[in-house]
């Protein structure tokens, strides 16, 4: 979560400097700012991986059998989940502040589904960050550039789709399809299989 907050701070500083230098806040600058924020988040995710990798080596050195008590998959899951939770908190906090009033959403032509779709988008982002963490760590460990590129690309795509709001059908649907596909990908990356699911359901 700390690394995600560092990326937010860096993105905020970059946005402030860009606005001051350009003297404008148009859609093009907003798109560039969102893309820069995504890239900074992924850069901080990589820094988190490197730090946890060093910590893992230290734990392995201190253990009696020379093995770390925490697996890479566990670190990836916890890191991704923490990224997702802190991202979700910052995504929804301003919306919750708006919901306290004054005024009611929908009266002046605004979408009455603003709050419910924002909640679903936040949920999707928390899940996506968890899945991205698992895939990203595995790709870094295996030095698989394609996996890293797909994580960054899907993150950029998700961020770009939010600019279609308030046309929620065009943003929410594709984001949830992307969440499902990324979840299946992360499940396979973590070693999951359809056979394991059947064993779990049959309590074997």
UniProtKB/TrEMBL annotation:
Keyword Amino-acid biosynthesis: no
Gene Ontology biological-process entries: Notch signaling pathway; protein processing
Taxonomic superkingdom: Eukaryota
Signal peptide residue numbers: 1-19
Keyword Acyltransferase found: no
Pfam families: Aph-1 (PF06105)
A GO cellular component entry from the record: gamma-secretase complex
Function recorded in the entry: Potential subunit of the gamma-secretase complex, an endoprotease complex that catalyzes the intramembrane cleavage of integral proteins such as Notch receptors.
PANTHER family: GAMMA-SECRETASE SUBUNIT APH-1 (PTHR12889)
Family in the record: Belongs to the APH-1 family.
UniProt name for this protein: Gamma-secretase subunit APH-1
Origin organism lineage: Eukaryota, Metazoa, Chordata, Craniata, Vertebrata
Gene symbol of the encoding locus: Aph1a_0
